[in-house]
Design a protein that fits this description.
This protein has 92 residues and is mainly alpha-helical. It is 86% helix and 0% strand. The chain is built from 4 helices and no strands. It is elongated and about 45 Å long. One of its GO terms (biological process) is defense response. Residues 6-84 form the Disease resistance N-terminal domain. GO terms for molecular function: nucleotide binding.
Length: 92
């Protein structure tokens, strides 16, 4: 299921970020809360896979979760890349 894969990928990105001392995590507590909420979504998606396949409204919800998770991951990766590039520029 696409939403499950997207949420799992986002969780992996957050886990990798939490393992670093990147400045984006100046609010690690909020990042951990976000991770908990995403873990809830992941469990929800696991438990209701059959419903998503059968119901049109649930398919729409699944698509929204998928798109949101991908968007969040893209924003995080872009922000990390931009800040890394800025850090390199300052050192030169």
């Amino acid at each position: 299921m696409a939403a499950y894969a997207a949420v799992t990928s986002l969780l992996q990105s957050l886990d990798q970020l939490l393992e670093t001392d990147h400045w984006i995590l100046y609010k690690k507590e909020k990042t951990k809360i976000l991770r908990e909420k995403l873990t809830f979504f992941q469990t929800f998606l696991e438990d209701f896979t059959n419903i998503f396949l059968e119901d049109k409204k649930m398919k729409h919800l699944e698509r929204m979760i998928h798109d949101t998770a991908h968007g969040m991951e893209d924003m995080i990766e872009s922000h990390v890349y931009d800040s890394s590039y800025e850090g390199q520029s300052r050192q030169e």
